[in-house]
Specification:
The chain has 366 residues and is of the alpha/beta class. It is built from 12 helices and 15 strands. Helix 1 packs across helix 3. The relative contact order is 0.16. The structure holds 2-succinylbenzoate (OSB) and magnesium ion. 2-succinylbenzoate binds next to loops.
């Protein structure tokens, strides 16, 4: 049952439309996929959510590759899949790289046991509620048209990206057109505590939350900001470990947490954060990192845990890709929900031929 072989493959996957945030613009993803195999040739798949440049966190595709190839994969080769997270503990940082192998090991365990990953993780058999994250657009009209389309498709909440100079007027225009839609804004760390007077003006628009307004590694200033605004703060970038979630909740730095399995080093840590938050009545939702179908399938499984009560940034493959690397692609119902697969593991077939077409580098560790 031990991991006997690990394959790494980097693919280039062009986005159907560029995705722009306060920190930059992405047109093509460079994604590292991890395939683990056991002695009976059962496989497991994971995805590294590191981006093309270290603009969201310190990790990027170029740093995750050597971390995986020279450190993490050699540690994991020969190991029991259940032991992976403990083996990785002495290695500092590199959480997205760790999560790529750790999550592949979870998929492997689920397939070894013949059960869906969501069941192995402790999820509930239910459809998960979905929202969309819409990047900065060239014009307000383009944003409004985009929102219109996503609402018509059934998505349950809209998240828009904001940054200084593209905030109050933009949100006012959206609220004017869609007075009752569940709406939130993600700043990706674009503001400072001294912007509190401006951020307080957002209270008028009844956002369900504002995501990560202040620095990517800050908790203390978020607590000060939360005292000055009514809009609930949701932390994304700042929560890298269950300890961060503990500290943030203790200090009142947020009322909601966005859990990204890659950002916190894997499913095991994501579950710990979900468990903590559920105990403290802090709702959580599953964030996204423009994942291909493999990362998306892991997000769906994670979202079945009981604490994930809010719509996540987990949406249909067709919003991102011309052709996904899994079959079938992820689809969303007219009610804005995804039904988790009942097949073993991540529950989707990985399209090896498609991956081969997109591959730009490979490594095998055994
Ligand atoms: O901050 O949630 C974020 C994408 C890349 C990096 C960070 C973020 C995002 C998104 C997109 O908001 C979510 C998605 O559709 O995958
Ligand atoms: Mg975010």
């Amino acid at each position: 049952m031990t991991i006997t072989r690990i394959d790494l493959v980097e693919i280039r996957l062009p986005l159907l439309t560029p995705f722009e945030t306060s920190v930059g613009r992405t047109t093509e993803r460079r994604i590292i996929l991890v395939r683990v195999e056991d002695d009976r040739e059962i496989e497991g798949w994971g995805e590294c959510v590191a981006e093309e440049l270290p603009l969201y966190s310190e990790e990027w595709t170029g740093s995750a590759w050597p971390a995986l190839e020279t450190i993490l994969a050699p540690m994991a080769a020969g190991a029991d899949p259940e032991r992976i997270r403990h083996l990785f503990e002495p290695i500092r940082g590199n959480r997205m790289a760790k999560a790529a192998i750790e999550s592949a090991a979870w998929d492997l365990r689920a397939r070894q046991g013949g059960v869906p990953l969501w069941e192995l993780l402790g999820g509930i058999d239910r459809e998960i509620p979905c929202g969309v994250s819409i990047g900065l657009q060239d014009s307000t009209e383009a944003l409004l048209a985009n929102i219109e389309r996503e609402l018509a498709a059934g998505y349950q909440r809209i998240k828009i990206k904001i940054k200084p100079g593209r905030d109050l007027d933009l949100i006012a225009a959206v609220r004017d057109r869609f007075p009752d839609v569940p709406l939130m804004a993600d700043a990706n760390s674009a503001y400072r505590l001294s912007d509190a007077p401006l951020l307080r003006k957002l209270d008028a628009f009844k956002l369900t939350m504002i995501e990560q307004p202040l620095a990517h590694d800050d908790i203390v200033d978020h607590a000060k900001l939360q005292q000055q605004i009514e809009t609930p703060i949701c932390l994304d970038e700042s929560i890298r470990h269950v300890r961060d979630a503990q500290h943030a909740i203790q200090l009142g730095a947020c009322r909601v947490i966005n859990i990204k399995m890659g950002r916190v080093g894997g499913h095991a840590m994501a579950r710990e954060i979900e468990d903590l938050c559920r105990g403290k009545s802090i709702p959580v939702w599953c964030g996204g990192m423009l994942e291909s179908g493999i990362g998306r399938a892991h997000n769906i499984a994670l979202s079945t845990l009981p604490g994930f009560t809010l719509p996540g940034d987990v949406s249909a493959s067709a919003r991102y890709w011309d052709e996904d690397i899994i079959d079938p692609p992820v689809t969303v119902s007219a009610q804005g929900t995804i039904r988790p697969s009942s097949l073993p593991g991540i529950g989707y077939r990985v399209k090896r031929d498609r991956i081969d077409q997109l591959a730009v580098r490979r490594a095998t560790i055994d």
